[in-house]
Specification:
The protein has 491 residues and is α/β, with parallel strands linked by helices. It contains 18 helices and 18 strands. The strands form five sheets. It has a five-stranded parallel sheet with strand order 5-4-3-6-18, sandwiched between helices. The longest helix is centred in the C-terminal third of the chain and has 19 residues.
């Protein structure tokens, strides 16, 4: 039964609410968060717009199947904690998803209200609930599940790994996450800038997963410190989930890429986000950005990189993309924010050579103009060079954001683990790999995708791991030689 006091004709007259945002001329000079989210008043007004459909197609559009209709109803009842727990039934990272999930191409894209009007701002409402809890406290982990006596190792603490860990902990498994870096979060930490996703949010969400009983160990590089075989055969883990991401950059392969001042977006963003270059000299990680900088690419990583370069001092910041605006894979909101901050989009433009001076430093990016031809295998129109359109962008920094692939360490040290192109781990529909008891998801199995799709993989894998470990229907026996009295844990 609907709790909305308004009839549908009145609901659709309410304009879609917009979050508070810091002024572009101010925020482009620092790394504080751009969006300030909804006030309670705006959240309640936005929730009134929901049509409370009998068939909530928005949930079908959500990769992790959040019960959106129910959490919106609870907002209208001002039961904000209840609304957030509705989300947490299927989404362990609401504060993160509310900030970086591309709702406009998922739940909001299929919103019934959006057929004639602006769709419900589902992502902004999710963030409001997470921020409300952060400001008012009140997080209480669910009661611990009955221990099953079996343990699972999670390799990687990105969105896929954290999600899989949380789901398995709720089912009663002993879960240990192994993270190669010194801090938790994977791509959430090293790939997404502070102004889009404050690292405080990542830490708080990780702490909530720890509260479920999950152990998270950093500075453990599986494939070097430990192998998959050692985790299973010597440490007693009954199953392993690989969520190691895709942190190895790819390059365009054009002349001049070896010049000083050329970065991959992975290196550039890792230096800034993980190693604190944005707080230099407080953090001893310098990163050099020239007066003019160019980022090559059209996705969210490219957008993050060029907006970061602007904040680090680039007076002119170019986003160079070989297709048109309509083909850009970046979120519309991020493109809008970038343009507000003074980023110059050089669309239908393709780099062919990086130019350098006698000292070996970048001094320019030679490009050609493009036009769109017939669609390629991706369904997008193929860019074709325009003869005689060569020109040079005068820049001192070039950052390539043209794709990434998995790090090969785990694959190279795990016999029998089948891989595909660029080292992507091959998985079934239930995230099972070719190795019994080993599952994988997120970018290591996709080659680069969104946070929410990685989370969906983590949920699917947790369900498949549970089925795998309970397949014979018999209660698990406590293993001999369990470490510290608990299977699969490090002492």
């Amino acid at each position: 039964m609907s709790v909305n006091p308004l009839k549908p004709p009145a609901r659709v007259k309410i304009p879609r609410q917009v979050p508070l945002e810091r002024p572009p001329q101010v925020r482009a000079q620092d790394f504080e968060e751009v969006s300030q989210g909804f006030t309670e008043e705006r959240a309640l007004l936005e929730a009134l717009r929901c049509l409370d459909c009998r068939d909530p197609v928005c949930t079908k559009g959500c990769p992790v199947s959040i019960d959106i209709r129910t959490f919106v109803r609870r907002i209208l009842e001002k039961d904000y904690r209840g609304a957030l727990w509705t989300i947490r039934e299927t989404n362990s990272l609401p504060a993160i998803c509310g900030r970086v999930c591309p709702q406009e191409s998922q739940c909001e894209e299929v919103c019934t209200l959006g057929k004639k009007f602006a769709p419900l701002a589902i992502g902004k409402l999710e963030r409001f609930l997470a921020d409300y809890e952060d400001e008012h406290g009140g997080f209480q982990p669910p009661p611990p599940a009955t221990p099953r006596g079996k343990a699972v190792a999670i390799v990687g603490s990105g969105p896929a790994g954290l999600t899989c860990a949380a789901e398995l902990a709720r089912l009663g498994y002993g879960v240990t996450v192994f993270e190669a870096l010194h801090a938790v979060g994977g791509v959430l930490r090293y790939g997404i800038p502070e102004f889009r996703l404050p690292k405080r949010i990542v830490d708080e969400e990780a702490d909530r997963i720890r509260a479920l009983g999950v152990a998270i160990l950093t500075n453990v590089l599986v494939g070097r410190t430990l192998t998959i075989d050692e985790l299973m055969e010597e440490m007693g883990f009954d199953a392993v989930f690989l969520g190691t991401g895709a942190g190895t950059p790819t390059f365009m392969g054009i002349p001049g890429e070896g010049l000083l001042g050329v970065y991959s977006a992975n290196e550039f963003l890792t230096r800034v986000n993980l190693m604190g270059a944005w707080r230099f000299p407080e953090y001893d990680t310098p990163v050099k950005v020239g007066r003019e900088a160019a980022v090559v690419g059209g996705g969210n990583t490219a957008m993050d990189a060029i907006r970061t370069a602007k904040r680090l001092g680039a007076e002119r910041a170019y986003l160079v993309y070989r297709r048109s605006r309509e083909e850009m894979p970046a979120r519309v909101e991020e493109i809008h924010h970038a343009e507000e901050e003074g980023i110059e989009l050089r669309l239908l433009t393709n780099p062919v050579r990086v130019l350098g001076n006698r000292s070996g430093w970048v001094e320019g990016l030679e490009c050609v103009r493009m036009e769109l031809g017939e669609p390629d295998e991706s369904g997008r129109r193929r860019p074709v060079a325009v003869p005689g359109s060569e020109h040079v962008l005068r820049v001192q920094t070039v950052i390539e954001a043209v794709g990434q692939k998995p790090n090969p360490i785990v694959q190279a040290t795990t016999p029998g683990l089948a891989t595909g192109r660029n080292g992507v781990v091959r998985v079934s529909d239930s995230q099972e790999t070719s190795r019994p008891g080993v599952f994988a998801g997120g970018d290591v199995a996709r080659g680069g995708a969104t946070v929410i799709l990685a989370m969906r993989d983590g949920r699917r894998a947790a369900s498949a791991i549970h089925e795998y470990l309970t397949r014979d229907g018999s209660p698990p026996a406590e293993p001999e030689g369990a470490m510290s009295g608990e299977r699969g844990r490090l002492s």
